């Protein structure tokens, strides 16, 4: 049973449209190189690769603190970042990072 989709604005301090969504899914998951990584490790990948702010450490730090506040709990990556054209009903134009904890599974969806 799918939970309602939830959006989290990752740019609370900036006047721009959020480009990052938090979606909850119950789906079959696929292996990847990020399996088992924690939230801090995910940010090491997210910040320079997706959010293009490797030269803006202060903003990256604020964004990380914001997400930690929104996502209390021990999250662990179950499926890493890749274009998920193999997952049913998911457009290949989105990039996902799948994570889970004892409350369930979530996917970061990057447009």
Automatic annotation (TrEMBL):
CDD domains: DLC-like_DYNLL1-like. Pfam families: Dynein_light (PF01221). InterPro entries: DLC_sf, Dynein_light_chain_typ-1/2. One of its GO terms (cellular component) is dynein complex. One of its GO terms (biological process) is microtubule-based process. It comes from the Eukaryota. This is Dynein light chain. It comes from Noccaea caerulescens (Alpine penny-cress).
